[in-house]
Design goal:
alpha+beta; 6-stranded mixed sheet
Length: 180
Amino acid sequence: MTTRKNIRRSAAVLLVAGAAAGATALTAGTAGAMPTDFHCTSGQVTSRLVYGGAGAGGRDAAIQFTAKQGETCTLPGTLPIDLVGARDVVLSSDAAPDAPSVEISDGSSAYIPLHWTAIGAPQQETPLALTVTAPQETSPRGDTSDPRITLPWDFGAVNAAPESHTIRTGAVTAGTAPTV
């Protein structure tokens, strides 16, 4: 009988030890994944408007986000953008609602493309700025920042006539914004 008790005790000890090892491995895997799953704050990136060129009455630009050194974060596929000034100009997104997220880190960039018309329409307005809302206010280290990123508009007038008064935006795209 003593041998059976010893076998049962050994089996119980091995079972508990195996469960503990599995839980430790699971916890370590989850903790390691956290930084790359964290959405960007305005304090983790530098942001700027980049001129992309003109042709056939259309204009192109982009909102470019660059991760600061030592930062890793994720931008969702779409971000809320507002226009400051130019009350008759609207923003419209061509991005799919399920556009994939883009991870940036240590100086890498992502951008949102912009396109509009600016061909001598009788009704034109010049925006003052674009405001982008970062998806997160607090970084993994606990640093907080205002989620609003305001970028001065330096690209002149935009058609404000009802038939062509839209700045079209796209999905967040990995890489540096295209320029002319």
